[in-house]
Amino acid sequence: MAIISTSHLSKRYANGTAALNGVSLALEAGQFTVILGPSGSGKSTLLRLFNGLETPTEGSVSINGTVLQRRNLRHVRREVGMVFQHFNLVGRLNVMTNVLIGRLAYRSWLGSMLHLFREEDFRIAHEALARVGLAEKAWVRADQLSGGQQQRVGIARALAQRPRVILADEPVASLDPVTSTEVLGLLKQICREDGIAVVANLHQPDYTHQYADRVIGLNSGRVIFDDAPGQLTDNRLQTIYHRDSQPQETRHAELALAHA
Ligand SMILES: Nc1ncnc2c1ncn2[C@@H]1O[C@H](COP(=O)(O)OP(=O)(O)OP(=O)(O)O)[C@@H](O)[C@H]1O
Known about the structure:
It comes from Thiothrix caldifontis. This protein has helices at about 45-50, 75, 95-100, 110-115, 120-130, 145-160, 175-195, 205-210, 235-240, 250-260; strands at about 1-10, 20-30, 30-35, 60-65, 65, 80-85, 165-170, 195-200, 215-220, 220-225. The chain is of the alpha/beta class. The two termini are about 35 Å apart.
């Protein structure tokens, strides 16, 4: 069964921008999916709809067979871990506390407010940190870590949720190439070992060959490519990054950047 599925999903923002148009997808467990597309094509909107941060204008999103609705949001969302470009850690808190934040959805409202964690939460958080190779940094302030280490903490926080899905919005855009491959390698390993569906928005098509099982190309809010990375020829890539109103030089610059 698909872990994430969407049916005729559309999103129009209050200012009238049509960010997504009729997207129907089924993403499988244990699959690493990369979403590519030019700036403004709807990649972030799609991920935000996957975890209920945005509500669809039309269509629906299901996680593990449950349609996301306002009333089940908290329950369903805990199955969906998020990893962000700028890590979204609380810098003045230690690493362990940042990872424990991934456990909040399993605690009562009061427990969450008071940050009352159980022994089990500490055990799960510690396991997650060990998994990303940072167990010895548990009591260090998060802002004392390197960017790559902070992103690993972000992944550990997602893992502490015991998720079925990890959504990664530009997870390596702030990292150097070596660290980027380490982070993507870690996500791929987790995807395989835990049978988690990983969905990552990337600006670098070159990484797709190494990490993606499936590539989805968005343009103007529509899926215009959905295939294995081996099928991503230069022509198809140009189609994904095509913009009607864009001068040719800008298009070439965007493609060159994407290949950098
Ligand atoms: N909160 C919002 N209100 C209004 N319009 C929005 C909002 N968020 C995004 N948009 C618009 O929706 C469209 C899709 O944006 P989105 O951020 O999903 O694209 P993206 O492919 O992730 O872009 P990038 O690669 O630059 O992050 C864009 O035209 C954007 O300006």
